[in-house]
Amino acid sequence: MTAGAMWRGGGILALLAAAAAFPLVFTNPLVTSYGVYAMIFAAAAGAWNIFSGFSGYISLGNAVFFGSGAYAVGIAARDWHMSGLAVFGLLPLAAAVAAVISVPFGLVALRVRRHTFIVVTIAVFFIFQLMAYNFPFTGGSSGLSAPFLNWRAATYNNPFYYIALAAAAGTTALAWLIRRSRFGLQLRAIRDDEDRARGLGVRPMPVKLAAFTVSAIITGLAGGLWFYFITQVQPPSAFDPLFDLSIAVMAFLGGVGTVPGPVLGALLIEPGQLYLTQRFTNGYLSEILLGVLFLLVILLLPRGIIPAGSEKITAWRARRDRRAPAGAAGRDAGAGTAAGPPGATAQAAAAGPAERRQPPPPGGGAGAAGGRAP
Amino acid sequence: MAREIYQAIADGILAGGVYALMAAGLTLIFGVLDIINIAQGILVVLGAYLSYALLTRLHIGLFAGLLITVPAMFVLGVAIQWAFIRPLRGSERTSMTLLVTFAVALIAEGTLYEIFGPDYVQLRSAYVTRSVHLPGFYLPDIYLLGFAMAVLLVLALYVLLYRTRFGRSVRATMQDETAARLIGINVNRVAALTFGIGVAVTAAGGMVYGATGGGFNPNSGYDLISRLLAIIILGGLGSIGGALAASVFMLTLESVVDIWSPSWAIAVFYAALIVVLVVRPAGFLGRKGVRAQ
Amino acid sequence: MTALLRADGIAKAFGGVQALSGCTLEVSRGSVAGLIGPNGSGKTTLFNVITGYERADAGEVTLGGEVITNAPPDKIFARGIGRTFQLTRIFARLTVLENMLVPARRQAAGRWRNPLAGAGLRAGSPERRRAMELLDFTGIAGHAGALAGSLSYGQRKLLELACVLMADPAVILLDEPAGGVNPPLAERIAERIRELNAGGTTFLIVEHNMEFVMGLCSRVTVMDSGAVITAGPPGIIRNDPRVLGAYLGGGLEDGESGDDATAP
């Protein structure tokens, strides 16, 4: 294992430990509730990123899965008379319901071009909101309530927090796995040039649908958890356009298409969002401020924190290396750098007939950088 | 029963004309700037509120008020495009524009709530209560006038696009932005002005919307944008004629379905959208050469 | 030699424009075939039909006797046809190496592969070795870690070619491989083609650069206004008055010599 990988692994473990210790250190339930929401949204934003970030198809309909997961848990808990810890066992049901919905949804929506796709996701979102209002089993506009949990108030949030943390961590790990896998490469190729990817043997529909369903499953699970946490669900809160906007902005803030980006974005934005809604309880000013916040995020930091940060680091490294030319060969080119060493082009052009199919020199320097996922 | 249906069809066609106006603006913006302006719905509502404010506070009539609201919304549109959309760059531009318009919609909605509150209001005037009586139908004046205005404005849009130099610039930019730039078209100006026009027509549409349709509040923006989006997809992104056809068709369909099931009538929009997309992904009059991904 | 790739009577119209009418073209196994014609003659459209990017209104495309007309691009690729594009296309936001690893490997159907299996980026994986070999072959191995979008035009062309080679296709369709590149680079590309051809790969090349075509191809098909006007060895083609007429638009005027036709 390289030194870099060890540092990264250690850093991740430290972060996880800190996250796990969070509710033990900050025992104020208000603070831990922020943590629960932040983790739920981290999972949801990560799920959004797994599909939309990697494939480039912007979905504004993930609330469909979130709300469906919430309602699934609510309806099942009500009809099967469940309560207490058993309700957590319904979370897989939420995930399954979301998965089942995502297949026909995806089959219709993924056949069309990107702009139309966005609109289709919005349309399906409104359909689901409409259904929630009108179907008999969803409780109409008053919605559903969660079964009563008689836990101690002081540590009420904690189980929710840990489950949400596990969801967020799991989603991030999955995103990492996907990004370095063949599946992820195909997704990203589809993002850059879907037609050409086809010409190279990639089959877009199965790839896109798989990512779409994965995204749905996680979001549905998050929705189920969320419902149980806030103990009630109604159509406008379960299917909330703001949810769709928020998770997209979170992913963009942190860095869309990166692995840690959405989590970072969620951890930054969600507490802010909560604070605004609670501070301005008459509701409307918070909406304005939230809109302004989102506008600023998109206008001022379009590439996201992680990519911008990694560019700064690479530029810093390049400056440092220029000042110390010894050992510049085999320097880490960095995954995000612009054009490789300028000498290479001249070399390549001059090599001419000497180049045949030969195995590359062992441990080719530039190649090592290709494997680093941001 | 038959009379109800005919009435519903008549209502639908008339309403369709008005929606066509709002959808035309939206599809024009898409065609030229390649962006989906999610804020269009709330901007219609803003237009309605502006007419409302002029009517109730300054007692300026509905149609007269348009002389103020339409230019005002035009300026607003240009300002939004210039301040929030033009600066966006980079490979994620399309997605970011989407989110920006969404954020603008959020701000607009919150502002309207703050100023006007959540209560439903309606534009009341003689136009709304008077109606033309034909054997078997009531055709409210406002609908007729609104429809006539919508038709006029859509025609005006056509003239603008196909008979003026500016219109040529717009169509050139629609087809190929880079090429347009290369022949000296100020693409930024075209973009800003087009967005302004797209928003200005919502002022007109908003006024009629506010006078018909049984009341509105800031939340109505969502309902509107979902319909408008369905309409422009059905009509084909970028096609104004398609927007017209789709509006009339969808509103008529909804109006007829509404006789049986008011709460599900809106669903016809989505159902039609999905059916059409499964059968013909480009929509009715899909513009050929919709920009590559 | 047998015809490996054959397009028979292909017709294609876009709205009112008849882009292709009754095109027939044959490429023998193991040869390097050329396809030339003035701009707008339908060469790229024919490519698009053969490779599944456009549907043919009429006609048939066969590969090694198997009919592949109107098959989707991914199936065409799986059958062993690769292509490059007139306007060079690469995956700009992937690194050069990642670009190389996108093409699906042709493998026995029905074998289940772990979807989360690595992309082949790990040092030592066979895919990566082959990718680096091909990058070496085209001379851009030094840029393996760079984003493809940062490559120069000529480098992108090389990348596009290298990418197509990953799956070792039997037939490669090149759309203007020497378009817009300087003569030394064009010569290098021609050499690579010769080497690959010596190894058994069949080529069909669209080009405007006459020297390039005449120096490389054993048989040249000429198109004009959507139809094939003639085909044959380059030496005959270059002097055919119909070909000259197609390029110069209307046949030779008095006093013009046939040499003018060799200028692109």
Give the ordered list of helices and strands of chain C.
Answer: EEEHEEHEHHHEHEHEEHH
Please, what is the average pLDDT of chain C? Answer: 84
Q: What is the count of DSSP helices of chain C, taking H or I runs of 4+ residues?
A: 9
Radius of gyration of chain C: 19 Å
Instruction: Give the count of helical stretches of chain A.
Output: 15
Largest sheet features of chain C:
6 strands, mixed
Helix content of chain A: over 70%
CATH topology of chain C: Rossmann fold
Distance between the first and last residues' Cα of chain C: 30 Å
Whole-number total of structural domains of chain C: 1
Q: Rg of chain A, please?
A: 23 Å
Concise account of the structure shown:
The complex is a heterotrimer of chains A (374), B (293) and C (264). By secondary structure, chain A is an all-alpha fold.
Provide a descriptive summary of the structure in words.
The complex is a heterotrimer of chains A (374), B (293) and C (264). With 374 residues, chain A is mainly alpha-helical. Chain A has a domain at 25-239. Chain A has 15 helices and 2 strands. In chain A, helix 2 (29-55) packs across helix 11 (261-279) and helix 6 packs antiparallel against helix 8. Mean pLDDT of chain A is 82; it is low at 327-374. Chain B is mainly alpha-helical. Chain B has one domain: Orthogonal Bundle (ABC transporter involved in vitamin B12 uptake, BtuC), CATH 1.10.3470. In chain B, strands 1-2 form a two-stranded antiparallel sheet. In chain B, a hairpin with a 2-residue loop joins strand 1 and strand 2. In chain B, helix 1 crosses helix 10 (220-235), helix 2 (40-58) packs across helix 9 (187-211) and helix 6 (141-163) crosses helix 7. Mean pLDDT of chain B is 84; it is low at 286-293. Chain C is an alpha/beta fold and 264 residues long. Chain C has one domain: Rossmann fold (3-Layer(aba) Sandwich), CATH 3.40.50. Helix content of chain C is 31%, strand content 23%. Chain C contains 9 helices and 10 strands. Chain C has helices spanning 43-50, 73-79, 96-101, 126-138, 153-165, 183-198, 210-216, 234-237, 241-248; strands spanning 3-14, 17-28, 32-36, 58-63, 66-67, 81-83, 171-175, 202-206, 219-224, 227-232. Chain C has a 6-stranded mixed sheet, with helices on both faces. A 4-stranded antiparallel sheet of chain C has the order 2-1-4-5, covered by helices on one side. In chain C, a hairpin with a 2-residue loop joins strand 4 (58-63) and strand 5 (66-67). In chain C, helix 4 (126-138) packs across helix 5 (153-165). Chain C starts with a strand and ends in a 16-residue tail after the last helix. Mean pLDDT of chain C is 84; it is low at 250-264. Chains in contact: A-B, A-C.
